[in-house]
Write a structure and sequence with these properties.
By secondary structure, the protein is α/β, with parallel strands linked by helices. Helix content is 26%, strand content 27%. It has helices at residues 42-49, 119-122, 125-139, 155-166, 180-185, 214-221, 237-241, 254-265, 282-290; strands at residues 3-7, 16-20, 30-39, 64-65, 70-77, 89-96, 102-112, 146-150, 170-175, 189-192, 207-210, 230-232, 246-247, 273-278, 297-301. Strand 1 (3-7) and strand 2 (16-20) form a beta hairpin. Helix 3 packs across helix 4 (155-166) and helix 3 packs across helix 8. The two termini are 19 Å apart.
């Protein structure tokens, strides 16, 4: 039986387990994918802790899969699926699966993987890459404007910095001192995070893309003359609206995935995958992200499906 890394109840790392599961069967509008790579994101451990996405309803069934972005090879297609066939390489956000050997994707939020994009890079795009793309474009800043990105050293942050640069924006990236070289290598001005960080930001910030929330979001808002240029992926809609800004509006379409993948294929975006883990070490991968030590992006590669 295939394996999956799951959480068996809401709680901390002690709720996680590697278990055997039934191989999923694709329903209408779905494809079954042999997972080649799965991206690790902060939302994964937040869901394990009990976080509910907007629109979530009903009781969560356990065991619940960890992981929210994958790439792989189509094994089977459900009714009503056109344009995809077994053997095709795809990536997307799973409705079943994640840190697993098999996953189900909907055709509504999956896309063919370009040959020039690796499985590991493609697995960073449905959540991290696309969230970065959506937020930077939502700000709508003109070329030569300055955007501040908080949490710039993480998976979404490194993508947001690079996407902003492709639009001709000047970028200030807030991150820990250990990530200074990474931020600067991407063409951004580094500002060390921690107490008093806002006072270290150069003058003239035109927009903020916040990936942290909390007091960091509140402090970032004080740097803006126009609070409509405050967008967050790190706080709730109510929190950011109270400051005059907005939550990032995610565009979950195959076309948006294709746009982000094209940036990788052309070399404009490097997802900065700094480490991969096999499925049986998925807990270590999640700890690296949960504890804030990850530089760039962490990816899980199920060895049974490795090329």
């Amino acid at each position: 039986m295939p394996k999956a890394y799951v959480f068996t109840r809401n709680g901390g790392p002690e709720a996680e387990a590697l278990i055997e599961v039934e191989r999923p069967v694709p329903g209408a509008g779905q494809v079954l994918v042999a997972v080649r790579a799965a991206g690790v994101n902060p939302v994964d451990w937040k869901l394990r802790n009990g976080f509910r996405r907007p629109g979530d309803s009903g009781e969560r069934a356990f065991p619940a899969y960890l992981g929210s972005e994958v790439s792989g090879v189509v094994e089977a297609v459900g009714d009503g699926v056109g344009g995809l066939a077994p053997g095709d390489e795809v990536f997307g956000q799973p409705v079943v699966g994640g840190y697993s050997e098999y996953a189900l994707l909907t055709v509504g939020f999956s896309a063919p993987k370009p040959a020039a994009v690796s499985f590991t890079d493609a697995a960073t795009l449905p959540v991290a890459g696309a969230t970065a793309y959506d937020g930077i474009h939502q700000l709508g800043l003109p070329a030569d404007a300055t955007v501040l990105v908080t949490g710039a050293g993480g998976g979404v942050g490194v993508a947001a910095v690079q996407i902003a640069r492709t639009l001709g924006l000047r970028v200030v990236g807030v991150a820990g001192e250990a990530k200074k070289d990474l931020i600067e290598s991407l063409g951004a001005v580094h500002v060390p995070s921690g107490e008093g960080w806002a006072a270290r930001v150069p003058e003239g910030v035109d927009g903020v893309y916040d990936l942290v929330g909390g007091t960091v979001l509140t402090e970032a808002a004080t740097l803006l003359a126009d609070r409509t240029k405050l967008v967050t992926a790190g706080a709730s809609p109510d929190e950011v609206q109270a400051l005059g800004g907005a939550r990032v509006a995610r565009v979950r379409t195959p076309e948006r995935l294709a746009e982000v993948a094209d940036l990788v294929a052309t070399g404009a975006l490097d997802p900065q995958v700094t480490r991969t883990y096999p499925l049986d070490r998925a807990g270590e991968a999640l700890r690296a992200v949960e504890e804030g030590h990850a530089r760039g992006k962490i990816v899980i590669v199920p060895t049974e499906n490795a090329a």
